[in-house]
């Protein structure tokens, strides 16, 4: 079958190991379902995989992609939950120490078909297109859990989103605004700041700029480049929710004094549960809120999408269609 996969790793040139070609069609084990992929979206995770982060040499070749929407064997329209955990464990799948994301241990979604445990299928409402639904399982689910589960944000509170252009960051702006939050955003780029405001941010500032107010919570995916600013932007008792470190995990100053003196909370967040994905889908269906697509490409042109993400030339999600 047609597939986009990693053949080798390169930390400097991640696209060197990317192949747009053919792989054997997957076979669904007992209790798993085969999904015919209609749309799949790209995440920074796919670039990390090509750099050899989170993926082992012995797992190659590996079909990339965490996110998909498509049809199950009965023709039902579904969204695929990308977190694969131990079926016997129960509870919050993101806390399962043995969990993995599609394309880490199990073949990913950038292909004609993907197999997943049947419980990982979430019904897709007719109001969402396949392209929109394919944006949800990683970036939008991560944003949903960051804001509402880990961040415990409620209408009227103020949130700061760092690095406005990213896939998770645009999801945070869109979902935060739709849920009645006051949304502030930062970006290094003037054009991205304008677009963040068009998207729903109340105000957008240059990265590192002093804010006119202290915020209730900061949503972090950038890491080293913005960490100090995130800590300094919080009110006493505020919280940072962190799910990524795009600019690197090693800090020049962790701002520990400020963290204890202002009694700040630092909360990690990773992906989300199947239950949260279902809640997110229903939230979009009920509110009419939609993900922001940077561009839609036929999956055969996947290399173009990977190159755009590697170059940072993205505002919103890159979606591949079949
Ligand atoms: N834990 C999880 O479950 C989970 C899920 C999804 C993503 N993630 C992680 O979250 C991060 C973002 O993912 P994504 O898919 O949204 O990636 P992305 O679309 O590539 O996000 C890139 C954004 O990061 C900002 N940025 C990058 N370098 C920066 C720097 N030096 N200084 C300031 N800002 C910088 C940029 O914002 P501006 O250009 O606007 O300044 C850029 O738009 C990644 O590290 C990813 O691995 C984690």
Automatic annotation (TrEMBL):
GO terms for molecular function: oxidoreductase activity. The lineage of its organism: Bacteria, Bacillati, Actinomycetota, Actinomycetes, Propionibacteriales. It comes from Nocardioides cavernae. Residues 13-320 form the Enoyl reductase (ER) domain. This is NADPH:quinone reductase-like Zn-dependent oxidoreductase. Pfam families: ADH_N, ADH_zinc_N. InterPro entries: ADH-like_C, ADH-like_N, ER, GroES-like_sf, NAD(P)-bd_dom_sf, Zinc_ADH-like.
């Amino acid at each position: 079958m047609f597939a986009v996969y990693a053949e080798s790793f390169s930390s400097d040139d991640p696209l060197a190991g990317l192949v747009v070609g053919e792989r054997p069609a997957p076979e669904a084990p007992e209790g798993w379902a085969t999904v015919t992929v209609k749309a799949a979206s790209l995440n920074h995770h796919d670039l990390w995989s090509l750099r050899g982060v989170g993926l082992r040499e012995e797992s190659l070749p590996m079909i990339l992609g965490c996110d998909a929407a498509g049809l199950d064997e009965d023709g039902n329209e579904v969204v695929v939950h990308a977190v694969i955990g131990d079926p016997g464990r129960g509870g919050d799948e993101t806390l399962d120490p043995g969990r993995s994301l599609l394309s880490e241990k199990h073949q990913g979604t950038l292909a004609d078909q993907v197999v997943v445990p049947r419980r990982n299928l979430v019904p897709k409402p007719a109001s969402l297109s396949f392209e929109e639904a394919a944006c949800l399982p990683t970036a939008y689910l991560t944003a949903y859990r960051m804001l509402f589960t880990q961040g415990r944000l409620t209408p009227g509170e103020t949130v700061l989103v760092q690095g406005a252009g990213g896939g998770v960051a645009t999801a945070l702006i869109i979902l935060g605004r739709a849920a009645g939050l006051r949304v502030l955003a930062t970006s290094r780029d003037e054009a991205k700041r304008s677009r963040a405001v068009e998207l729903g941010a109340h105000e957008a500032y240059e990265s590192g700029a002093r804010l006119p107010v202290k915020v209730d919570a900061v949503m972090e995916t950038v890491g080293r480049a913005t960490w100090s600013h995130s800590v300094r932007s919080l009110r006493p008792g505020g919280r940072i929710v962190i799910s990524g470190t795009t600019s690197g995990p090693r800090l020049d100053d962790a701002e520990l004094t400020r963290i204890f003196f202002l009694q700040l909370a630092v909360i990690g967040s990773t992906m989300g549960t199947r239950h949260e994905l279902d809640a997110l889908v229903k939230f979009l269906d009920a509110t009419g809120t939609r993900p922001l697509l940077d561009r839609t490409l036929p999956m055969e042109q996947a290399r173009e999408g990977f190159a755009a993400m590697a170059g940072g030339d993205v505002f919103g999600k890159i979606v591949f269609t079949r």
